[in-house]
Amino acid sequence: MKKQFFTILLSSFVALSVAQTAINFTATDCSGISHDLFSDLDSGKVVVICWVMPCSACVSGALTTYNVVQSYGSTYPGKVIMYLCDDYANTVCSSLNSWADAHGLSRAARFSNASINMTDYGTTGMPKIVVLGGADHAVLYNANYTVNASSLQGAIDVALTTTGIHDIDGVVSAFNLIPNPASTSADIKFNLTKDAEINIDLFNIQGELINHIYSGRLASGENNMPINVSAYRAGTYFVKLSEGNKSRILNLVVTQ
Known about the structure:
The protein is an alpha+beta fold. The chain is 16% helix and 37% strand. It has a five-stranded mixed sheet with strand order 5-4-3-6-7. α2 links the parallel β3 and β4 (80-86). The protein is elongated, with a radius of gyration of 18 Å.
């Protein structure tokens, strides 16, 4: 049964000024454990970061985020993790821990560390949530103030399709979408180092496959695959390019 297509307004997600790939950091959490973001992502994990003040207005969004992350515990144990971060690292860990424990966020790693900077991902929000994953460290979800559980879950699902997959960079280079954002059409551009069987798929923010763009053998060299986006609602989509068990993903923003 097809799931209902869910409309996501462009303003809720990634603007041109927002990082399309994650910004690395190495930070020690409130339990004294050191974390390197790219090491977590490269090991196949999906990292969900939630910044809070903390304050009462942050509770609902943070708890929704936490519950969605915890829902993957049985099917993807240890693969989807949550970092709960103080917004400007000016709240001591003891206060952040008390706030998190009081609101049932017991399994989230907590940080009060300025190296985890929410402005790396655009405007601030209370809370602010991003989903990071894949071999190319993609930003797959970026929301301020409110969290849609279905959209958050969809972004995590997309991230899980690209984690732990062998790097495609030995076969594909210069993978890009032009223009991006797009309102009518966009060109999927990439170079192949050799002839290869290529699949290109388009997913919505909920992780649902909405268009199987291409499947077949392409010649080495520069390739260009046009996609008509005029029928799609405004929002953030994901273009996944695969060769065998190797894959990369890019965000595509559609404006109408």
